[in-house]
Write a structure and sequence with these properties.
This protein is an alpha/beta fold. The protein is 43% helix and 11% strand. It has two domains: 9-201, SGNH hydrolase (Rossmann fold, 3-Layer(aba) Sandwich); 210-238. It has eight helices and six strands. It has a six-stranded mixed β-sheet, sandwiched between helices.
Length: 260
């Protein structure tokens, strides 16, 4: 395990996963693994500063254009970059372009920060993962190669036993629950070299699956409340993040939260 570095500043880049959907915070917005990690780091360091540039729905090209240069200029001790999965889950994905933009982003960020962390994103059990598994594994293999060439760390959430459990995913089936985000924060915490506070990949206790009629009811609710709007956005070229700004656009002091 790496020796934990002294971290007094942290910048998080990415899409909805890093913005924190669907981990609802006490103020009505989203919290998420990056905010949770920042709170833990702030508790150890006076004057800790934090920025979160992630915005839901962003593709890797948008992350590269809107977030990377801004983050590099902040020269933070820690930068996390998670992106590309929104591209991979689109039928017309150009994998060569996605990997090229990731490489450009890493080349810009790695020399400008103390420690760069990349991730192999988690996947929920189900047909969507199977349909795009080959693309995802191509992306994650490229991320491993990038990390080796540029001295970055990789947090492997894709291989996690627990994070494939549907019970750790929200009703939209695209984003982790609060418990899922808590586990991701612990995974990054440990990868940075901090002592484990729990087994973040411990499977949930066994449980009986819901009855057939409850599963069908959940499927119908998912199709009505989440799938149909998502299809509508794809057909009209819109994104869930259109017009939204990052929740913490500047590297500013953070007072740690008491919420676990």
């Amino acid at each position: 395990m790496e020796t934990a570095p002294q971290i007094s500043s942290f910048v998080a880049l990415g899409d909805s996963f890093t913005e924190g959907m669907s981990d609802h915070g006490p103020g009505g917005g989203y919290r998420g693994w990056a905010d949770r990690l920042a709170d833990r780091l702030a508790a150890r360091t006076d004057g800790f500063r934090y920025a979160n540039l992630a915005v839901r729905g962003k593709l890797i090209g948008q992350i590269a254009e809107d977030q990377v240069a801004r983050a590099a200029a902040m020269e933070a001790d820690l930068v996390t970059l998670v992106g590309g999965l929104n591209d991979v889950l689109r039928p017309s994905c150009d994998m060569e372009r996605v990997c090229g933009l990731l490489e450009q982003s890493v080349e810009r960020l790695a020399p400008a920060c103390g420690r760069l962390v990349l991730m192999r994103s988690p996947g929920r059990q189900g047909p969507v993962l199977e349909r795009y598994r080959t693309r995802m594994e191509t992306l994650f293999g490229f991320i491993d190669d990038l990390a080796e060439r540029h001295g970055a760390l990789v947090v492997d959430l894709y291989a996690a036993r627990s994070l494939s459990d549907p019970r750790l995913w929200a009703d939209d089936r695209l984003h982790l629950t609060a418990e899922g985000h808590r586990r991701v924060a612990e995974a990054v915490w440990q990868r940075l070299g901090h002592p484990a506070e729990c087994d973040w990949d411990e499977p949930l206790p066994p449980s009986e699956p819901p009855a057939w009629h409850l599963r069908r009811r959940a499927d119908l609710r998912f199709a009505r409340e989440h799938l149909a709007p998502w299809i509508g956005r794809r057909l009209t070229g819109r994104s869930s993040g259109d017009g939204l700004l990052p929740k913490r656009p500047d590297l500013t002091p953070l007072a740690c939260e008491d919420t676990p």
